[in-house]
Amino acid sequence: MRYSKVKQIRPNTLIVGIDIAKQTHWAQIMLQGRLIGKAFSIQNTREGFENLVRTLKAYQQKLGATNIVVGMEPTGHYFKPLAYYLHGTGMCEVVIVNPYHVNRSKELDDNSPSKNDRKDARLIAKLISQGTYFNLPLIFNTWAELRTANVSRMQLTQKDGN
Questions:
Q1: pTM assigned to the model
Q2: Which of 19, 80, 112, 151 is the Cys-Cys partner for 26 at CB 3.0 to 4.6 Å?
Q3: How far apart are CA 145 and CA 142, in angstroms?
Q4: Which of the two residues, 147 and 2, has the higher pLDDT score?
């Protein structure tokens, strides 16, 4: 799968960095290089996603942002429900950042490699604002079904030892 770099950060772009986790994600909003408010949690549920969308629309209106870019690390499969949900709303562009870049940025940011969900959300937002992100290639319909069938086939052949 090929990831393509996109150029859509304009001066009034609301940037949202999200640190993905199994149950609770953390988000940090940034506009024109400045952090907006504190990092906040998002439950990995439909209700949590709906709350996020309401929050982003409110900030967009309040700050006069022209567009929204939401970025996250492609962590396992946990990012997919949120990515597909946000894509389906049509209100924002969903991008990904390389986990390696987030890891390396931790040490540069505060001279500490420590893991912290709020810190990671801030770093992801910062990387996006610097243009260090890629377009997320979401697949739908027949292509999604083919991917699922292929994964199932590989799992079955590994179980059988073939």
A1: 0.78
A2: 19
A3: 5
A4: 147
